[in-house]
């Protein structure tokens, strides 16, 4: 701890620079107070981060330990975070601890609990991997660092804000600089080409395919993230006017959309895996079901998933990807700093590194992770551009040009209604 | 009167257990009635309760929780009765006993995962016989895990609880002298099984009643096993409630709290139903005694008991074997009986990452065990010295954390610990683990303690030794084996804790179990295999040490070897 | 005999003065008695008459369910308010109760009074004690490997090594077979007399009482002196 000697020096300087009216006593009191605060470094720092002064941020970050709470369900992602941690430690002297969480909601719980207990600083979460509803909740309850910090990160200049509107609007909620972009996601489907010869390229085609192959398609049970996304995809595709979904839900527009959606699901369910009497839990169970040959078509949000699973021996190397012709839902994922983070500067340094061309290119490498970049590659200096050009996509990864248009996420109010109605329709069998 | 610190131990230990549970429950009770200011709940309302009652399928969820709690316990108990009454002292019995301690150390989630993989339509058994016997080149569409009646879940819980109940029964039996009693009843013309049920069971049951209650409470509120094997539409209540707890929409936390309170009521109802069942069963048994029926031909029942028990152990072993195989598997496609290739890849990649979680688990588990043992010994010694039984009834409080579902009070407890600024510290985490290890340590040790012939202590006193000298030189050495076994049990319980480690440790303390659960979210069976084995390794080593130390220490002391069963 | 034991021979009798033991308000035992040094007094009575409870009271470990009053005088001092380990009253039960985790030597050393100091001296005392019961060289043996008679003798030797000022015998011969019982009785009474210990024997075996060659007190089923 270097805080104590520094404060002592500071108080001495204060006394010599004493304005004539102030008594020594008050100054002493202040010095004592300052020393007391110095014992709690985070209190001194609270609210005092000026991201525009990046060298100062780097200086403060040095020696900090950042607890990065991120989903830990995939060892290739964990390995990537390890790599990033080692780089950040080497270059900036910031220690990264990856707290592997099974469910981001647990992190949200923890932040709530800290808020409820009045723990306004020294919180346990410094940076959290987040997007969508979890972000919306934290933002709404004021549980994030209350300042726009992300756009001031040096590497934010390369972010493709124009070409990728989801970088600033997370599930229709403006990010307001409260979270820094990390990666892109778009719904894509995959199948085993050794078993399945024909694949459906739209929602209606999917229904026909399911009728022809009963029991060989499944979707995770909403409100699982990917299961809900599937519902949203259907709703967008089936709606006469998809644009109503980007506005808050109203009674009449809800009915037109939901009638079509539930009519479709009523028709689809008898042909689902286990006749829709059971649903997989999440995207991973979906993958296992495909690997075991129980289902023939699965889907994921991460375009690199299937290739990585092949590399991991989890899926056969005959697996290929496809997408719907009318486009699929796309979104972005981010990192955010909670209101009471203990190592705010360190968290920013890590967020900035994750946004760097070097880290982004490595992340997009399917042999590492395969998560698409958030950067505008054309805006990069040549040597950084080359990093991306050198990447080879896996056999089961769609090239960016093969993806249809990325459909925007519907307004969050739609999701709540649809999930609730889904549960009352199918939640009890 | 002189103040004796030791004599306050039973009181202290009860408070230590009671406090966190009550505080935690309060933390769940307030949001149930709308009070959680941080989320904008600053007035009392019945809204969360109403929302809970309006949940579709709630009745089914409750029924599933009740059924899984009661049926799994009943089945496991009947299997234990069958094994003990029909096969005690046989080779089959000795084999079972040898198998159970290692099986006991397999974590619940790992058992469930292995079990699911074994019996699923695309599982190992189907793979072994397909396509040769079945003609299936694709998995059949039968409803195994997640069946709507929860049969898969009940079966999984039954085989997992069987070793536990068997072990506590074995610990209690020597005091009852089952052999002699059973022989006596047989000489009156009763069949061996029914004779055992008449003569031994009622007394044994009294001894293992508390562990049985703990099993009911556990099985009626279990989350991980239910997630892996249980129905999904609707799921059992505990699963539903954890989902609410983890809903991104924070207003669901109110619903979740109401669900937690409902879960507590459901668990209490399960215990109440069991209690009613006890009365009925004892009345039935009374009628049976009156009737004098002998049931001499019980060959079929003996065979049934043997096959059920052997099947349960084999299922566990195969489940485990499946996990081991997965951890070394290359690509493994249906319907191949074994993977195309075996590799050390998964182990090599995970190896370095295992060290810190293993170290943390040993540190936390070790501390929680040592503190738990010291507190248990202090309490028991105090009880012995005060010589009163009054302290013992208060000990029921100790079992509160086993009866009250974890999900019902942990969130509230986390709040309290945060408020006193204690969360994330090692001691807070050890304390959090202690809440769960202490009851088990106490449970496994107190009977053995009270059974030790008091005349040994009187003899030592008469030889002029002080109470403390007797504690150190007579009680401790004579009880070395049960003490170490209790420590191993406590250690195993600590290793298995997921929610307390996560919530109280704030994610700063990665243990092998938090890692295992986080990774199992990814559904990668190879990783699950590796982590389940590592999760099993620590408790196993604990039990091994608990067996080896007394054996080495007392290798020339025949009186110190456990009586041959 | 070792020096320490021959040094101080208790000459005083053990006296029980108005000892009353109650269970749930009922008086089980009401007794006054004086046992001279070297004398063996036998208390006889059917089971349930409270004779073992009487010994527990004298020894200082009356179960809490019972209430006891009255004084126990030993060496001219009232020991009834002392804790059990300070009374210096030796006791022998039906079972030898050798500590199974200690060797034979360990058991004897456990009993040996703290007055004998120094490793060598303590070791020598244990050896002597073993010689005295014809079991020289048995120090390292596991008590579980001894015969019934050997165990009983070790148990007695252990008690005597603690230098008791009185001896309580709670049916110590009842589990021995007939032949051994005769020899053990002789051995125990002989030692008690030679050590000059006031001894109280509780039994329901007439043979025991006869062999003790002392006074016999018979308790009625209700525990009162009959």
UniProtKB/TrEMBL annotation, chain A:
Provide this UniProt record's keywords sorted from A to Z. Periplasm, Signal
Specify the domain of life of the species encoding this protein: Bacteria
Per its UniProt record, what InterPro entries does this chain match? SBP, YnjB
**Protein known as:** Putative thiamine transport system substrate-binding protein
In Pfam terms, one family for this protein is SBP_bac_8
Q: Which SUPFAM superfamilies match?
A: Periplasmic binding protein-like II
The stretch of residues making up the signal peptide is 1-46
Keyword Membrane: yes or no? no
From TrEMBL, chain B:
* Domain of life (superkingdom): Bacteria
**Which InterPro entries does the record match to this protein?**
MetI-like, MetI-like_sf
Listed under GO cellular component are: plasma membrane
Q: How does it sit in the membrane?
A: Multi-pass membrane protein
One Pfam family this sequence matches: BPD_transp_1
| Regions that span the bilayer | 12-38, 58-87, 108-129, 149-173, 210-230, 250-275, 304-329, 358-382, 394-418, 424-445, 479-499, 528-553
Compartment(s) of residence: Cell membrane
The alphabetical list of record keywords is: Cell membrane, Membrane, Transmembrane, Transmembrane helix, Transport
> Domain ABC transmembrane type-1, which positions?
58-274, 358-549
What is one Gene Ontology biological process annotated in the Swiss-Prot or TrEMBL record?
A: transmembrane transport
Q: What is its main location?
A: membrane
Q: Which family does it belong to?
A: Belongs to the binding-protein-dependent transport system permease family.
* Entry protein name: Putative thiamine transport system permease protein
Q: Which organism is it from?
A: Cohaesibacter marisflavi
UniProtKB/TrEMBL annotation, chain C:
Please give one Pfam family short name: ABC_tran
Keywords for this protein: ATP-binding, Nucleotide-binding, Transport
Q: Name one GO molecular function term.
A: ATP hydrolysis activity
* Nucleotide-binding in keyword set: yes
Task: Identify this protein by name.
Answer: Putative thiamine transport system ATP-binding protein
- Please give the family membership noted in the entry: Belongs to the ABC transporter superfamily.
Ranges for domain ABC transporter: 13-225
Domain of life (superkingdom): Bacteria
InterPro entries reported in the protein's UniProt record? AAA+_ATPase (IPR003593), ABC_SmlMolc_Importer (IPR050093), ABC_transporter-like_ATP-bd (IPR003439), ABC_transporter-like_CS (IPR017871), P-loop_NTPase (IPR027417)
């Amino acid at each position: 701890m270097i805080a104590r000697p520094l404060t002592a020096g500071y108080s001495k300087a204060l006394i010599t620079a004493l304005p004539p009216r102030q008594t020594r006593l008050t100054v002493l009191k202040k010095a004592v107070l300052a020393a007391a605060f110095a014992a709690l470094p985070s209190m001194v720092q609270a609210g005092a981060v000026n991201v525009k002064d990046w060298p100062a941020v780097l200086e403060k970050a040095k020696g900090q330990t950042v607890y990065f709470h991120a989903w830990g369900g995939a060892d290739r992602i964990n390995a990537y975070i390890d790599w990033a941690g080692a780089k950040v430690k080497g270059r900036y002297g910031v220690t990264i601890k990856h707290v592997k969480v099974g469910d981001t909601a647990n992190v949200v719980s923890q932040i709530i609990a800290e808020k409820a207990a009045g723990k306004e600083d020294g919180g346990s979460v410094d940076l959290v991997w987040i997007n969508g509803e979890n972000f919306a909740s934290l933002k709404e309850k004021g549980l994030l660092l209350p300042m726009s910090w992300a756009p001031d990160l040096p590497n934010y200049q390369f972010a493709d804000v124009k070409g990728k509107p989801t970088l600033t609007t997370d599930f229709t909620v403006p990010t307001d600089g409260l979270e820094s972009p990390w990666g892109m996601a778009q719904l894509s489907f995959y199948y085993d080409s050794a078993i399945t010869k024909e694949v459906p390229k739209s929602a209606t085609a999917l229904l026909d395919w399911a009728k022809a192959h009963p029991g060989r398609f499944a979707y995770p049970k909403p409100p699982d993230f990917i299961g809900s996304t599937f519902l949203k995809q259907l709703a967008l595709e089936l709606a006469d006017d998809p644009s109503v979904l980007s506005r808050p839900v109203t009674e009449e527009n809800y009915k037109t959309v939901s009638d079509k959606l539930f009519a479709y699901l009523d028709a689809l369910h008898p042909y689902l895996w286990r006749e829709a009497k059971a649903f997989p839990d999440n995207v991973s169970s979906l993958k296992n079901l495909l690997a075991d040959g129980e289902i023939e078509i699965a889907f994921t949000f991460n375009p690199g998933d299937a290739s990585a699973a092949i590399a991991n021996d989890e899926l056969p190397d005959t697996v290929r990807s496809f997408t719907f012709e009318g486009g699929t839902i796309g979104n972005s994922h981010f990192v955010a700093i909670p209101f009471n983070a203990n190592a705010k500067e360190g968290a920013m340094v890590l967020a900035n590194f994750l946004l760097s061309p070097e880290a982004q290119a490595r992340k997009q490498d399917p042999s590492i992770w395969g998560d698409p970049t958030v950067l505008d590659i054309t805006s990069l200096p040549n040597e950084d551009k080359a990093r991306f050009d050198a990447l080879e996509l896996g056999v089961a990864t769609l090239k960016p040009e093969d993806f249809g248009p990325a459909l925007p996420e519907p307004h969050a109010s739609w999701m709540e209604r649809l999930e609730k109605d889904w549960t009352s329709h199918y939640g009890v069998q | 009167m002189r103040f004796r610190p030791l004599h306050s131990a039973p009181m202290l230990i009860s408070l230590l257990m009671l406090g966190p549970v009550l505080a935690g429950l309060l933390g769940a009770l307030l949001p149930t009635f709308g009070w959680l200011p941080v989320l904008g709940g600053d007035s009392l309302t019945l809204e969360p309760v109403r929302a809970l009652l309006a949940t579709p399928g709630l009745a089914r969820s409750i029924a599933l929780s009740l059924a899984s709690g009661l049926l799994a316990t009943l089945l496991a108990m009947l299997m234990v009765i069958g094994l003990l009454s029909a096969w005690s002292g046989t080779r089959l019995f000795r084999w079972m006993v040898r198998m159970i301690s290692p099986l006991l150390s397999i974590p619940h989630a790992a058992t469930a995962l292995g079990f699911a993989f074994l019996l699923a339509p695309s599982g190992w058994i189907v793979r072994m016989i397909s396509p040769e016997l079945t003609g299936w080149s694709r998995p059949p569409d039968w409803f195994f895990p997640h069946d709507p009646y929860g049969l898969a879940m009940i079966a999984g819980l039954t085989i997992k609880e069987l070793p536990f109940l068997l072990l506590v029964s074995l610990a209690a039996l020597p005091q009852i002298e089952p052999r002699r009693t059973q022989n006596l009843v047989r000489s009156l013309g009763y069949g061996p099984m029914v004779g055992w049920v008449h003569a031994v069971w009622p007394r044994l049951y009294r001894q293992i009643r508390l562990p049985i209650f703990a099993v009911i409470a556990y099985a009626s509120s279990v989350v991980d096993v239910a997630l892996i094997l249980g129905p999904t539409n609707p799921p059992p209540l505990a699963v539903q409630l954890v989902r609410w707890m983890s809903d991104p929409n924070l207003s669901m936390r109110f619903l979740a709290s109401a669900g937690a309170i409902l879960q507590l009521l459901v668990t209490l109802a399960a215990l109440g139903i069991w209690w009613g069942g006890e009365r009925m069963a004892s009345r039935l048994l009374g009628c049976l005694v009156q009737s004098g029926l002998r049931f001499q031909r019980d060959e079929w029942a003996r065979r049934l008991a043997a096959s059920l028990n052997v099947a349960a152990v084999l299922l566990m072993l195969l489940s485990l074997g499946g996990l081991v195989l997965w951890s070394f598997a290359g690509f493994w496609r249906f319907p191949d009986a074994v993977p195309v290739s075996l590799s050390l890849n998964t182990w090599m990649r995970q190896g370095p990452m295992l060290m810190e979680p293993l170290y943390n688990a040993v540190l936390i588990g070790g501390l929680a065990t040592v503190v738990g043992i010291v507190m248990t010994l202090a309490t028991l010694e105090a009880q012995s010295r005060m010589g009163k039984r009054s302290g013992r009834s208060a000990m029921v409080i100790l079992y509160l954390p086993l009866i009250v579902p974890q999900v019902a009070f942990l969130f509230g407890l986390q709040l309290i610990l945060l408020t006193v600024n204690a969360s994330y510290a090692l001691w807070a985490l050890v304390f959090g683990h202690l809440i769960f290890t202490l009851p088990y340590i106490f449970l496994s040790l107190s009977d053995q303690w009270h059974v030790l012939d008091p005349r040994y202590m009187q003899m030592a006193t008469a030889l002029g030794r002080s109470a403390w000298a007797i504690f150190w030189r007579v009680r401790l050495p004579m009880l070395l084996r049960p003490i170490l076994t209790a420590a191993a049990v406590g250690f195993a319980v600590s290793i298995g804790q997921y929610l307390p480690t996560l919530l109280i440790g704030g994610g700063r303390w990665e243990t092998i179990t938090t890692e295992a659960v986080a990774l199992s979210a990814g559904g990668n069976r190879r990783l699950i295999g590796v982590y389940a084995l590592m999760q099993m390794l620590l408790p196993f080593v604990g039990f091994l040490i608990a067996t080896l130390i007394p054996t080495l220490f007392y290798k020339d002391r025949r009186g110190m070897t456990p009586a041959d069963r | 005999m070792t020096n320490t034991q021959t040094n101080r021979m208790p000459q005083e009798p053990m006296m029980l003065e108005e000892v009353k033991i109650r269970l749930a308000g009922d008086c089980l035992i009401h007794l006054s008695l004086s046992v001279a040094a070297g004398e063996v007094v036998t208390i006889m009575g059917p089971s349930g008459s409270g004779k073992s409870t009487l010994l527990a009271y004298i020894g200082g470990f009356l179960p809490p369910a019972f209430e006891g009053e009255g004084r126990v005088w030993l060496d001219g001092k009232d020991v009834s308010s002392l804790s059990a380990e300070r009374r210096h009253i030796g006791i022998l039960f039906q079972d030898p109760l050798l500590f199974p985790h200690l060797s034979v030597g360990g058991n004897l050393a456990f009993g040996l009074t703290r007055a004998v100091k120094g490793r060598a001296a303590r070791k020598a005392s244990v050896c002597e004690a073993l010689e005295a019961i014809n079991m020289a060289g048995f120090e390292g043996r596991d008590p579980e490997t001894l015969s019934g008679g050997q165990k009983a003798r070790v148990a007695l030797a252990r008690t005597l090594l603690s230098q008791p000022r009185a001896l309580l015998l709670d049916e110590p011969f009842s589990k021995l077979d007939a032949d051994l019982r005769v020899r053990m009785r002789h051995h125990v009474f002989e030692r008690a007399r030679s050590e000059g210990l006031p001894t109280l024997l509780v039994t329901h075996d007439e043979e025991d009482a006869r062999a003790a060659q002392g006074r016999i007190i018979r308790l009625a089923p209700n525990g009162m002196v009959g």
